[in-house]
Design goal:
23% of the residues lie in helices and 19% in strands. By secondary structure, the protein is of the alpha+beta class. It has a domain at 182-357: 2-Layer Sandwich (HIT family, subunit A). The chain has a nine-stranded antiparallel β-sheet, sandwiched between helices. A three-stranded mixed β-sheet has the order 1-2-14. The protein has a two-stranded antiparallel sheet with strand order 12-13. The radius of gyration is 22 Å and the shape is globular.
Amino acid sequence: MTNGIRNAFDASKHSHRRFNPLSGDWVLVSPNRANRPWFGSTASVDLQPRHRFANDCHLCPGNTRVSGAINPNYEDTFVFSNDFCPFSPGDLSYVSESSDELMKMHLIEGASKVVCYSPDHSKTLPELSNHSISKIIDTWCVELNELSQKFIWVQIFENKGTTMGCSQPHPHGQIWATNFLPTEIARKEQNLRNYYEAFGKNLLLDYVSKELKDGCRTVIQSEHWLALVPFWAAWPFEMMLLPKDHVLRLDDLDAVQKKDLACVLREVTIRYDNLFDCSFPYTMGWHFAPFRRRQDGKLMNDQYWQLHAVFYPPLLRSASSKKFMVGFEMLAENQRDFTPEYAAHCLRNVSSIHYLQQSDS
């Protein structure tokens, strides 16, 4: 304010907060911080040439894993039970839940699987063909159908790159299944249900409708899918992938929707890689209606849910500049250095042809 005259608010320049209706959290947006000088730590970038097969890789076809099991000579996807399962064995004796309000504990059951995307050690998701990605989607659905018979929650995810803590270089994802709703899912479900009860409509379908009209945060729009930087994004180049139609769970998709999804998944990850000409790290995961069943065994029809995928990538300014969620972010509230609209603009304006496949011209 100068001489008593208030300047007009500009979201691209002025600090403000945005609300995430899925989590109930706020995020502080500080566009001016994007211009600050950077003398902090940088993430390492792996520039070593990659090969289709690695003798010392525990996930390559025909190789021996740490457990001693030998991988088959698989030709597309390969799924196996995690050799280092995060859940306790199911034969433990029962432990009653503690009555102490400050030290609660109870046993849980779960399963953990690894999904090798292809036999090719050198190709991450954006470098695979649409056909190969379709095979991955089909594999996800087969595993969902099996695990959901026993578990209420099945989490499909990928940690891509050492920056995200990935310990195996062979491109792969994971599937963890639990007999409880994890904290993030329980909170998201409550907010989706609250919106449905208040307005009689699906929150994410309403959100898709608004974003289709707006367009400034849209990165990719296909016949059946919308990929965008959410209005409430916390990570610099966070993205969300949603079907345009109402879909409760991943395995509810029809053949046409799956085929379209393979194309969009490939383009999303290509645009990530092209942003800084590197194998772009991220954590990606699918959220959908839990596998809650009625007494007759049929799944509950939780209409307030909508299938969606989230991508949380850490890179900020370049292939070696990482966003650190520390200080204010850890102690008070999420904060980002440029607007989601700017992030979407950057992702929209990179090529949809992978940088490793572009001609020198």
